[in-house]
Amino acid sequence: MKNKSLFCSFILFSLSTFLFCDVFSFNDLQEKLKENNPDIKTVQEEYNRSILDYKDALAGMGPKIDLTISGTYMVNPPVGSLAVNIDDIISAVNWPTGTKPAATGQRIKVYDGLENTYYNFGLTLEQPLFTWGKLHNAAKLYKEISNIQKIKLNYTSRQLETELETRLVTLFYLNRITNILDEEKLYAEELVSYSEDAEKSGMLLHQDVVDAKIQAKELDIAQQGVFEQITNQILELQRITGIDNLFLNEINFNFDENIIPEIMKRNNNELLEKALSGDQDSIKMATQAKVIQDMALKISKGAVYWKPDVGMEMSAGYGGQRLPFAEPNWRRKDDYSINVSVGIKTTLWDGGKKLNAVARDYSSTASAQVNAEATRSTIRKTMNEQWNTAQVCSMKIEYQDLKIETADAKIEHQEVLFKNGYGSKADLLSSKINKCTEEITKLQHELSRAVSCLTIKFLAGE
């Protein structure tokens, strides 16, 4: 009674776990992908930094203003008070006879000395006036880099969403293969049991029993292989979506197989032309990479010898023992200064480094052009390969349909023979096992075709 209660408790716990577990639809998994995927987060941060770089480049075209404030407290000021003896002044004057004043011995303070505090204020403004377009082109360059990062973010998101859909489609077909393998395993186990009984009665040889057991063992291996594939797909889904402890029963995804014939009906040349158009993210990134190198080349050309940069600097300063405007007689002390400077700076010779920089940017521009052409070539090659794979899989699927039809006919024939006592149960079970094998082969071809079609759809930007 106690064991029965424990068994019932276990069943109720299993049902509650199944009923109350999270269920993720395709849209839910897409949202988790956008929220948690590390690749998307990395590209997002790269895009954020590129925006800041662009803002810095724009700021470099405007003025730079620096403010310096310092205050000093001197315990022992270096200059003390100054006083003059009146008698020394009287003695220095050439008085008429009899009019020289008498000595008094008095001293007059003429300078109180430095105070204990000293303040220094400086305001500097630097403004580039003419730089041969270097600053302007740098701002354009960083803007293009930011645009590329934005396109890369969209491209990465689409690429991972396609990977997500591909893995879900793979699970869809693997689940169907698992069901057929379970059915085939039942036939194989029945065949082993029948063969063992037939061997005891002398109707079959021992080798026939061994062959049946080998066939059943091969199915065990096949089931384990499919289980490992399902496990790997689940682990990859956990990785790209950031969902911990994701289970197969938590995924609610039904693949609409009608999209495959719709893609197969499309014109290959039209899809290829669409994949190679300038609207595709991969083509945009390759094209804009060349634009960036062109701008870098312009910047290098603007920095060669005998091309001076012109800039202006304005400065205002104050240095005194008290805060500005609080010092007595501040107008007469000339503690304030205002300066305006215009400067020119250029490199006359540096051993040829600037010329090498120009040549290097020429090379980078050529490389960017080659990479753009290589990108188009790779897309063209991948599209043709996937299209051919899909076509071959369609032919193999049609071939498998014929083999399945033949297997059905053999099963029907063996059933008639077995009912009439002319055929053996082993032949009937072998026919059913053979049909399951053909159905699994067909599903494998359907999976390969679906993956190819999803890849074509991604490359075509749909």
What distinguishing features does this structure have?
462 residues; alpha+beta; two-stranded parallel sheet; 12 helices; 8 strands
Terminal Cα span: 61 Å
Instruction: Please state roughly what percent of the residues sit in beta strands, choosing from under 5%, 5-15%, 15-25%, 25-35%, 35-45% or over 45%.
Output: 5-15%
The value of Rg in angstroms is 44 Å
Q: Uncertain runs with pLDDT below 50, 5 residues or more?
A: 1-20
Structural class: alpha+beta
Order of strands side by side in the largest beta sheet? Answer: 2-5-7-8
Total number of helices: 12
Categorize the overall geometry. elongated
- Strand count: 8
Q: What is the helix content?
A: 55-70%
Task: Summarize the main sheet.
Answer: 4 strands, antiparallel
Rounded mean pLDDT is 87
- Series of secondary-structure elements, N-terminal to C-terminal: HEHHEEHEEHHEHHHEHEHH
